[in-house]
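tool=predict chain=A
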Amino acid sequence: MDETMKAVGVYQYLPIDEPKSLVDISLTKPTASGHDLLIKIKAISVNPVDTKQRAAKERKGKEARTLGWDAAGIITAAGEKVTSFKTGDEVFYAGSVNRPGCYSEYQLVDERLVAKKPKTLNFIQAASLPLTSLTASEALFERLDISHNLSSNASHKILIINGAGGVGSIAVQLAKSVGLTVIATASRKETTTWVKELGADFVINHRQSFRPQLEKLGIKEVDYILCLHSTDQHWSDMADVIAPLGKICSIVENQRPVELGLLKDKSVTFAWEFMFAKAKYQTADMYTQGELLSAVATLADKGAIRPTMKHNFGKITAENLRKAHKQLETDTTIGKIVLSGFLE
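tool=predict ok
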């Protein structure tokens, strides 16, 4: 007889105020095979991708879909091809957007996307790190091709737009860890305080033009820009303040065509970062996500980066997840929202 597990699922893609937008359900507990690990979920965090996947659309599913791609837990079983982990290992991961997510008691995840959890962090703290750490790491060190050499970065500046959000909170710390001068954007007193606590050297307001604010700081241009909020809104400002031969990376899809020609005269590089691309397309370097998370765990254990959990919404239930989604949709969230454990 198949074992069952508790989960929170989506049948109808509805606005979050609708009680049926996320519902408590029971599912068959999955079985690990191949490279998969079966992980008992201890804690999760929510991200904007969760709300986008759930957002209202003309679609209903006969079977429930489980969302969620940020978790920490314990391995309870492993497929026959698994070589890097064993039952009982404590791990953290983001997973793959085209597989069932972590709003469930158990989840299958490819071992190449997983790393052992930081020893110094509990499950709740660890669950705040994977998706944002992977996104920030890939954006900084793969898309923007920033060096890990502190001396080579000493004269370089990065502008991080929306420094107080989930990805920004990690990106500020990672950029500082490799010796960059970090200018973060924030528009409220509490977000400004947060990014300064994380290590930002300067803070400007993303609701105002960038150049006058940078010039007041004695900064003419920046070598790198990481855009974590409204690519459309900030495109002209980014093109204006990026240095010749500079690089821009964004994680936010554009809603209208952007004028790439603004970058041509300075020979500026533009790149997209989508953390799920490696797993979705089974790229040859998919395993690097596990490696990146291992590096993040080491940094966390050394105290070089700190977890970015700011809100604990309690147990993993449909009601609490609806509250978490609603908070994220305000576009004012600082750091990460976490939940842990299921109701008995």
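The first helix runs from residue 48 to 54. The chain has two domains: 4-129+284-340, 133-272.
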